[in-house]
Amino acid sequence: MNHLRHALFALFLVALSSTANAIEWPQEVVADKGTIIVYQPQPEFLEGNRLRGRAAMSILPVGSEEQIFGTFWFEARVETDRNSDTALVRDLKVTDVRWPDSKDAGEQQFTALVESYIPSAGFEISLERLSASLATAELEIESLSQLNNDPPKIVFHRELAVLLSYDGEPRYAKIDNSTYERVINAPIAVIRDQRGRHYVTNGKLWYVANSAMGPWKPTTSPPADLVAAIPEADPETPDWPSPPAIVVATEPTELIVTDGPPQWKSLAGGDILYASNTESPWLRYLPTGNMYLLLSGRWFRSKSEPGPWTFVPADELPEAFAAIPPASDIGGLRTSVAGTPEAEDAILDAQIPQTAAISRDATLEVSYEGSPKFEPVTGTRVSYAVNSATQVLKVENQYYAVDNGVWFTSSKATGPWKVADEVPEDEIAKIPPSSPVYNTTYVSVYESTPEVVYVGYRPGYLWSFPYYGVPVYGSGWYYRPYPGPWYYPRPPTWGFNVGYNPWTGWSYGVSWSNGFFSFGVRFGGGYHHHHHGWYGGGYRGPVVINTGDINIGNNVNVGNRADIGNKIQRNDLKVNRDNLQRENLYDRANVSDRKAKPSAVKSDFKRASSNNKLKNNVYADRDGKISRNVDNQWQTRDQGKWQTDPELNRPSTRDVQKPATSDLPKPSTRDVQKPASRDLQKPSTSHSTINRQHDLNQARNARNKATMREHNRPVQHRQMPHGNRNMRRR
Length: 730
Known about the structure:
Blueprint: H1 2-7, E1 27-31, E2 34-38, E3 42-47, E4 50-61, E5 68-81, E6 86-98, H2 107-117, E7 121-126, H3 127-133, E8 153-157, E9 161-165, E10 172-174, E11 181-183, E12 190-192, E13 198-201, E14 206-209, E15 217-219, H4 224-229, E16 245-249, E17 253-257, E18 264-267, E19 272-275, E20 282-285, E21 290-295, E22 298-302, E23 310-312, H5 319-322, H6 341-349, E24 354-359, E25 374-376, E26 382-385, E27 391-395, E28 398-403, E29 406-410, E30 418-419, H7 425-428, E31 443-448, E32 452-457, E33 464-467, E34 470-473, E35 499-501, E36 505-507, H8 510-513, H9 516-523, H10 561-570, E37 606-607, E38 609-610, E39 618-620, E40 626-630, E41 633-638, E42 641-644, H11 646-649, H12 692-712
Parallel strand pairs: 7-37, 8-17, 9-16
Antiparallel strand pairs: 1-2, 1-38, 2-4, 3-4, 4-5, 5-6, 6-7, 10-11, 11-12, 12-13, 13-14, 14-15, 18-19, 19-20, 20-21, 21-22, 22-23, 24-32, 25-26, 26-27, 27-28, 28-29, 29-30, 31-32, 33-34, 35-36, 39-40, 40-41, 41-42
Helix pairs in contact: 3-12
C-alpha cells in the first residue's frame, strides 16, 4: 500500500506551516586579494538547467575601504529543490567582466580575481527570487497548440453529491480471499457480491444498488462479512451532514454541486456574481448575462446551465475578472485570469525545472501484462507500451522508459534497463497532447559524467501546462484504457473538481480529498491499484481548491498570496501546520536511492555567504553600467562615486501600466518547438533597442516582489499526510 500512497501524492489534502527564512543577498566570496561581493543575479536566459545572466558586483581589496564596482556575465548550472524552495547556481563560467567604476589599470587584476574565484563558488537563491527575476529575462514560453478545449459533460446538482466516474464500462476483478469483486476502473471502491448487488462505502457511509450504474441508495445494513473485510474507517474521516447523493458517469464529466439553489453574491463593482454555496468556481457576468465555470484551469461560458458550454481563453475574459479583489472569497481565481500578477507568477514558476543528479547504478523494473504490446504515436516514429503501468517508448530499435522523472534505456522491451544519458529528443518532442505519453516530453537529460546523469522535469510531466497566460491541468484529451485483463489508468483531465492554488499547485475538490476517494485508495480499489498509477497535478502537493471561503466543507482561503502570511501567523487557517507537502519526485521514498551520493557529484565549490550589512539594491544594466536605488531614486556609479541619474529618474508611463493580456502568446497552429539553443554571445553595447530605465525598473520590481513572496510563503514539510484532517465542515 505504501507505493500507492506515494503514487497518489497529489490526492491528499495538506496544510500550511510557518514562514521561511530568506536567502539573503548580496553574497560574498573571500579571495586572497580581497572580497568579491555579488548582488542578486539578473538572469537573461534559462534553458533546461543552464542559466545565463549577469550580476552586479564589487571588490573590496585587502587593506582598502573603497569598493570597486563592476559587472560579470556568466553561464551556470542550476540545481533546484522544491522541497526547500531553493536553487543552487554553481559551476559558473565567467564569459565577460566590465569595470565601469575602475579609475586605474588595476582592472586586469580584478578581472583575474573574478575569473579565478567565481567559478569555484556556489550561490544559493530562493525559487521565488529566481522565478520573479526570470520575468525580465528572454524566456521563450511555449505555446501549446494541441490541447483539447472541448468541455466535459457538466452536471449540476442541488444537494451534496459525489461523482462516481467509470473509465468506460465497469470492469471487475476478484477481491482476494473473499466472494466479492470490485470495479477496477473507478476511483471509488465499488464492490459486487455473488447476487449482483453493488456496494459503495467511504468507511462510514454505505450505499447499495442493483447495478454499478445505480441508482445508489444509502443503507444501514451492509453485509457483515463485507464490513469486517474492509479496513477500519479512519477515525478522522469527516462526518457528512447527510449521505451525499452519488452521480454516475461513464464519460468525462464534471459535477457542480450546490447546497440547495445557488446563492449568488456580488463582487467587483457589481459586475460579477459568484455562487457562494459550492466548491466549484461558478460566476455570472451581469453586463452580458453569461455564466462562467472554471474547470481544471479552463474557463467555460454559457447563457444557462444546460449549455451549450464553450471554452474561453483566459486572456479573453471580461476586464472585471482581473479586478477581482485578491482578499475576496474568490481571490484565488486570479491565478486563472491572464495578465494578473498571480497568473504571471504561476507561468514563470512553470519554466523552472526540478533537477537531480542520478546515479548510473539506478535501476528500473518494467512489467507487462503478457508480452509487450506497442501502439504507434500518430505523426511520429515513436510507439508506446499499452499493457504496462510504466511509460515505455520505442524509437526505431531502442527502448526508453520514464519513471519518476528519470529516463532509462534498453535494447529490449523487457530490459535490463540502465539510466539514459541521452534520448532522441527531436523525435520525442513530436509526441502530441492527444497521446497518453505526451507528458514524457517534459523530462530531460541535461548532461552526464561517468558516475552521474543530470536530469530534470517541468510541470508538464505532471500534466500542468501554461496556456493562454494561465496554468491549466490535463491535456483535455480522453485516453482510452487498454482493453486487457488489467486496468492501466490514463491521466484524466475531468471528474475530480481540480483547482489550482498558487502556493501548492493542483488539488482535488472536497468530495474527493475528504471522504470517499481517500477511502477507495486505502481499500486498494479503483484507479490506482496497479503499480504506480498516474501522477496528478503540478510540482507541489495539493490542498483544497482555491476558491476560498465559499466552498462546501471548506472555510480556508489559501488562494490569496497577499494575505496568506498573515493568516498563518494569526493561525486563522484551520489546518495542521505541520503537514504541508511539497512534492519532489526525486525524493520519493521508493526512488530516492536513485540520487547520486554527494561524493559522486562534483562538489569542489564553496558556497558564498550572505553579507547582511549591505543592501541588495545594486543592479547592472545590459552594458554593464552599475546603478542602485535609494529611497526610490536611481543613482549611477560614475568616477568612483554614486551620482543621481536624471535619465533613470525621469517619469515613465511604461512602468506603471497594468499587465497587458495582448502580450501573452496565444497558441499557434504550428508544431510546438522547444526553445532553440542559442550561441552565447557577449552583451551588446548598443542602446538602440534597450530602454535602460524600463529594464532596471523591471529588475527592481521583480526583486522587491520576490522578497515579499519569500518572506510570506509557508514552509512545506516533507511529510506525507493521510488526508485532510483538520478542515471544518459547515
